[in-house]
Amino acid sequence: MEENQMQLVSDAVDYKGNSADRNTSGGWVAAALILGVEICERLSTMAIVVNLVTYLVGTMHLPSATSSNVSTNFGGTSYMLCLLGGILADTFLTRYWTIVIFAGINAMGTCLLAISTGLPQLRPPACNPAQSNECVEANSLQMGVFSCALYLYGLGLGGIKSSVSGFGTDQFDKNDKKEKQQMASFFDIFYLIINIGTLLAVTVLVYIQDKVGRSWGYGICSVAMLVSAFIFLSGTKKYRYKESPGSPVVQILQVLVAAIRKRNVDFPSNISHLYEDPAQELRLSHTNKLRCLDKAAVITSKDAGISESPTPNPWSLCSVTRVEEVKMLTGLLPIWATTIMFWTVYAQMASFSVQQALTMERSIGNFEIPPASFNVFMIGSIMLTLAIYERLIMPLFRKTRKPQGLTNLQKIGLGLFFSIIAMAAAAFAEMKRLSVAKTKGTTTLTLPVSGFLLLPQFILVGIGDAFIYSGQLDFFITESPRGMKAIGTGLFLTTISLGLFGSSILVEIVRNVTGTNGGHDWLAHRINDGRLDYFYGLLAVLSLINLGLFLVCAKRYKPNPGEVAPRTTDKVNVDVPPKEESA
């Protein structure tokens, strides 16, 4: 009996609700079934994102800048929906059911995309070569059906991405030494899976879309997601399930609401009069920053009844630890804000850079590289940079006084630096391409200039991505409070989302400023008629300014304090201090 008890996982249950048995649940088998959903999601997402502008420009006949904005708005919305998926998983659904439901929505989205791109009635007629390639832009019905399919897919993406990594780590017991090491390996394999899915998307699926048909490419994605969902369901009896700690977003709102409701209440003369949860295993010490939030922990006459109830209403009274957790998250916001700009630069690789490649020579012998497949050079540089860092640079660090290697903030700074160089290189490459376009005529479909001229911008953004992705993710998770690691991941994902939205906003501003009062539109209807090099130069300058702001914020940032166990002599004062009556 004792031996059987040793095999039980203390904080997890099986599908029947009983304590999970280590021998029959969780582990690598269960994690592999979950990773199957992730690789199919990544495969579909990147196949859609990197090749979206070529369909919008070449088939739907949208203007260059409009196509770019459709692409970045879709990506931004999808990543923002990850927050919704996380709230649903933590508050109403479990991670398991969130993955199941949203995998089905995801497959429906790709299926509708296959129908939308396959039916002739849902796309405009081809351009007329007899009239200087005059093109008819897609009408509202055609764009409406396509957009509906696109955002239905994005909804599914948000639900999957918010839960799949967390449910994967649930399959390992952090209190077991062996499984804790396996959990660390899971993150490495998870990132590897993401890159494998991306490579397959920008090579195999993009080629199928361009050479066989869009509907075939999207149909393959839909079938793959359905198959992975059924495989995921087959592991129901093998998974470990953990109780949701509750949505961190709700916890933050509770502190804010409680502080606002008590905004007219005076602070107690002694901070020991602030409420602290006696059942809290680990506590955070009180700090003097953002003292307005401390009002949420002030005990008033209306809260006197908590002595009779161990669980006061969290919308009117919050513990000091809960308040300090919100303060900790607030301290991350300056770093959060200064990392958004990188993802605005990153957005150009799947939008304007692909449009550049569409107008250039891309042949290697008899094989023509699809324009969206140039992203393979970015993915390759990410994987190569990570390999060089882990295999060559880290061994050198271990011989110094910094065996841990670069800090998270240093990695983020490097990523921002490489984005500046990437945009400068992109501006020079576009100057060369435009000079050829003016010589050969802006209506020339394929310019006599090699598409490999674009490699520096793809490679440099990839190097920056390798540093900033790992640095951001690790920073926001490790610096977030113990009970709010999920919101730390959410903060990271929102930087990507807002960066993509930022690209759309910047495009609209540039179009409105440069295209009015007789000005020369930098982002014209056709890319050859504009000055994309100026736009890239603007991004380089904005990124340089942003790097300066980041360095100031990084220098002023102080790592968050750790949690401490309460002393046995600690007592929670639940009496109402004489001067602390509610105003």
UniProtKB/TrEMBL annotation:
Membrane-topology annotation of the record: Multi-pass membrane protein
Compartments (UniProt record): Membrane
Any GO CC annotation of this UniProt entry: membrane
A Pfam family it matches: PTR2
Biased composition (Basic and acidic residues): 568-583
Species of origin: Herrania umbratica
Encoding gene (name): LOC110411122
Keywords per UniProt: Membrane, Transmembrane, Transmembrane helix
UniProt-recorded name of the protein: Protein NRT1/ PTR FAMILY 6.2-like
Top-rank taxon: Eukaryota
SUPFAM superfamilies from the UniProt entry: MFS general substrate transporter
A molecular function (GO) term: transmembrane transporter activity
